[in-house]
Amino acid sequence: MEKKELTNKERLALPLQKMPEQKPEERIRNVNEVPLGFTEEMAVAEAERCLQCKNEPCVKGCPVAINIPGFIKLITERKFGEAIAVIKETSVLPAVCGRVCPQEEQCQKPCTVGKSLKSVDLAIQIGKLERFVADWEMSQADASVPVIKKETGKAIAIIGCGPAGITVAADCRREGHRVTIFEALHKPGGVLAYGIPEFRLPKKIVGREVDNLVRMGVEVKMNMVIGKIHTIDELMEEGYDAVFVGTGAGLPVFLNIPGENLNGIYSANEYLTRANLMQSYSFPNTDTPILRAKNVAVFGGGNVAMDSARTALRLGADNVYLVYRRSKEEMPARKEEVHHAEEEGVKLNLLQNPLRFIGDEKGWVTGVECLRMELGEPDDSGRRRPVPIKGSEFVIPVDACIVAIGNASNPLIPQTSPDINVTKWGNIIADEETLKTSKKGVFAGGDIVLGAATVILAMGQGRKAAKAINEYLATGAW
Ligand code: FAD
Ligand code: SF4
Question: What is the pLDDT at residue 382?
Fold first, then answer.
């Protein structure tokens, strides 16, 4: 019997599907993923809520303009393979983006359903549907390898195996070019591997995306720090016709307050790299130790701070204080991450600013002195400026601290290729459309150009750069 088409009113009355999750008290004792994924029935029911808007506001909110109504319609028809194919026309890493993209600020924000029901929390859960079809594909025996055009004899060197480099590799290899990725670390994935924790992004997903590249014929060389082992000029002399720099923003920014070099104070980069990449949560079964602290203060209010705080809980902390100098509304972290952190017991110490660290005679941190703040007039960013409250100093007793207030660009490439122009913050200057740098044959994209940004923006720049590289190799025109 033919299925009766629902009216928009009926669709708006359908209940939002809640993705099952591990319970907070269970999940802080393991590193497994927190949200467990939709079943087929849930995904179809969620997709049925979509109104298939002709003006596609959700597509306008997506940085890579995925055909969102198109793939959602295919889910309602249970054509999951076709749905993932639609997403892959524009996105190379759907299983990653479905999990970590800030959809509530992008595609889901302008969604007509959310607007009609007067809450972005009730919008179609586009990210969760994207994750569902990506995971569905992964559960099938053979994921297909994209068609590779005839070999061109041209070679491209990609520096950095994060989302930007992975995207360029896939798009350039498809054109038939020889592609080699040089990655400094011993595992591929960039921040997806060393920064974002397993409980948010299982590493097998990142591994699979890189395996796909290898199956396409991309060569991935690990432990290759470009700038130390080879310079870009040497790579070009070796026969690479074009180079893409996707080295990210991996340089930690510190608070620069007294006592910051005491033992027990980590940059978020070091803490998360130990925990994720080196799997120190399994020490001594793995090689890298990490401090099993009981009282931990984390400084910052973004995703990196949330990931650090939630990791500290999983490593056995009794108290984790997230010290942030503004209010909760102004936290740059994804709402879902703040919600998960609070559910797990992270204490939000809002409107507080660290002044100095206090240590014992052996040089270990024992406390952090903070000052309370109140909100004043809006600053240049439009957010209300935090203003110190005189005489409000107090001490939080801690045995570890994690500084997660930002990351700057990796300096090695600009230092060893001075003919690549950079901004005063060290970000590589690249043309917005072609991602060409000031050096002929060299392109750059992702966090090394944008500053610490997002996976989808890094991927979007990778897409543009790959198009420009393919054109450059076809025509030779710079
Ligand atoms: P990266 O992912 O940084 O990859 C760069 C790679 O280059 C690294 O593997 C590095 O080892 C390598 N490299 C560096 N120098 C050299 C060299 N000289 N030679 C060879 N290789 C080199 N974004 C979101 O969208 N959602 C989130 O939830 C989110 N959470 C985050 C959580 C954390 C803890 C962090 C740190 C970032 C998070 N981000 C998130 C940001 C996002 O991960 C980055 O914007 C994105 O990974 C940038 O991609 P990229 O390819 O430019 O660089
Ligand atoms: Fe569907 Fe929302 Fe996009 Fe409209 S805006 S097509 S309801 S996802």
Answer: 81
Q: Which helix (H) or strand (E) holds 408?
A: strand 407-408
Of 195, 105, 226, the C-alpha closest to 447 is 195
Burial class (CB in 10 A: 0-12, 13-18, 19+), 300: buried
CB of 14 shorter than 6 A to ligand 2? no
| Residue-wise pLDDT tens digits, 241-300 | 999 999 999 999 999 999 999 999 999 999 999 999 898 888 889 999 999 999 999 999
Classify the C-alpha dihedral 187-152-472-148 as positive or negative.
negative
**Whether 278 contacts 287, CB under 8 Å:** yes
Residues paired with 35 in a beta bridge: 21
Whole-angstrom distance, CA of residue 35 vs CA of residue 103: 15
SS3 441: coil
From the CA of 75, which ligand is nearest? Answer: 2
For residue 107 and ligand 2, the question of a CB distance below 6 A is answered with no
CB of 51 within 6 A of ligand 2: the answer is yes
- Summarize the chain as % helix, strand, coil (round to 5): 35, 20, 45
The pLDDT of 322-345, averaged and rounded, is 93
Place of tokens 């992702």: 446
User: Do residues 466 and 177 lie in contact, with contact meaning Cβ atoms separated by under 8 Å?
Assistant: no
Consecutive H or E run containing 27: helix 24-27
DSSP-derived letter for residue 16 is P
Closest listed ligand to the CA of 51: 2
Is the per-residue pLDDT at 142 higher than 80? no
CA of 111 to the centre of ligand 2 (A): 5
Which of 455, 456, 459, when mutated, tests ligand 1's pocket best, judged by the most ligand atoms within 8 Å of its CB? Answer: 455
C-alpha distances in angstroms, 29 versus 25, 118, 268, 314, 340?
7, 37, 21, 6, 14
Residue with the two structure tokens 């500084």: 403
In eight-state DSSP terms, residue 404 is -
Reading the block at residue 73, the tokens are 């319609």
Please state, in angstroms and rounded to a whole number, the distance separating the CA atoms of residues 159 and 183: 6
Write down the pLDDT at residue 397. 98
CA–CA gap between residue 40 and residue 311 (Å, rounded): 31
Q: Which ligand is nearest to the CA of 120?
A: 2
Q: Comparing 109-113, 163-167, 284-288, 392-396, which segment has the lowest mean pLDDT? A: 284-288
pTM over 0.85, yes/no: yes
Q: Residue 249 C-alpha to ligand 1 middle, in angstroms?
A: 6
Helix (H) or strand (E) holding 203: helix 203-215
